[in-house]
Amino acid sequence: MLGVFRYNDKLGRRLVVILRGFPCSWGKCTFCPFALEQSTSTSRVIEDNRRIIAEALRELERDPVERVAVFNGGSFHELPYDSVERLRPLARGRIFEVEERSEFVTMNSLEALVEYYRPRRLVVRVGFETAFEEIREGLLRKGMPDSEMHRLSRLRLEARERGLPVEIWTYLLFGMKGISEESVAESLRVFKRLFDGVIAVRYRKYLPSHPEPAPVSPELASLLEREADLVDWGEEQWVIAGRRGYAPGRSGVERS
Fold first, then answer.
1. CB 169 within 8 A of CB 196
2. 123 and 197 in contact (C-beta within 8 Å)?
3. Is residue 216's pLDDT more than 90?
4. Residue 143 in domain
5. Domain CATH number, residue 121
6. Strand pairing partners for 4?
7. Residue 1's pLDDT is what?
8. Which helix (H) or strand (E) holds 51?
9. Domain span at 147
10. 228 contact partners, CB below 8 Å, separation of at least 6
11. In the prediction, which pLDDT does 245 show?
């Protein structure tokens, strides 16, 4: 799924740029497929990202948008400097979105990103996935305890008090066995209180070792579409290293 993608959805007209990353410094999440596209070769990461960023710049020249998201299958702070530098014209003056593990998100890192990129607004997405620590650490092995969740919630308020144009959003995972629909609904309620935005993501199984998917009821689907800032049901283009995630149901919704 490396490349440049255009969207026009609840977040508006936007460009999503998927870069190649180095292996995630955590690398223990039980459901993550992105290791399939990461590389330990610095030259490969740099060259692939130069090509993708150049393509993104051409897209913006052809049809400008005000929102650009950049992801690399890990944390933004794990990208090589060459990629970080070349992203500056994509970010300046726009709503600029990046993805981080919680430990990379500090007041110093937020101030540095705002100073370096000069975005109209910086949106940092963090994958807490669920508000229940026993699920997050027992089933998903995220390595991000509740203390981190509440630290980042406080951090976003402190950043706002300092006048930084920063928002912290979180992902909410659903459609996986072991994560009940009741817990998803409660996590949505908690996340909406703690963070600036919530993106609900339908789980897709890519590898045999990954947890099993679960059907999604129309009731939960309706709740997520109504209350989340965005719901990712798994469009056809989201293919990781040639593997499509398994999510039953043509429309993304099945009855339990």
1. yes
2. yes
3. yes
4. yes
5. 3.20.20.70
6. 17
7. 82
8. helix 42-62
9. 3-244
10. 172, 188, 198, 199, 200
11. 57
